[in-house]
Amino acid sequence: MTVYQLGLLGAAISMLVIFEMLRRRRLREKYAVVWVLVAVAIAVLAIFPEVLVFAARVTGVQVPANLLFFGASLVLLTVNVQLSSEVSRLEEKVRTLAESVGLERLERLEHERRCERR
């Protein structure tokens, strides 16, 4: 098996895993788009390896594999920043929700105490 065939197999397996996770509702569509694009890019590079060589020549990178690793690092960095942003937003929502629940419980306890005194 050549490296290109291995890349194509990896892209196909990635697509199957992504679609299975979507089907089981383990992955949301907005995140799946990124991973599908990554899998398609891997498949394109496996089918047409000259694209990477051309891109390396155009960008002035001497070793095409270095361009591939740089691109993969940028993709992972972007995904990481986006997910960190999402976690921060969700933490804020959870904090706000916890405060609301706490206030409602406090109001209910105060109401029960007032009813007991009567």
Automatic annotation (TrEMBL):
Native source organism of the sequence: Actinomadura macrotermitis
Keyword Membrane set for record: yes
TM annotation in the entry: 6-22, 34-57, 63-83
InterPro entries: DUF2304 (IPR019277)
Pfam families listed in its UniProt record: DUF2304
Keywords associated with the record: Membrane, Transmembrane, Transmembrane helix
Protein name, UniProt field: DUF2304 domain-containing protein
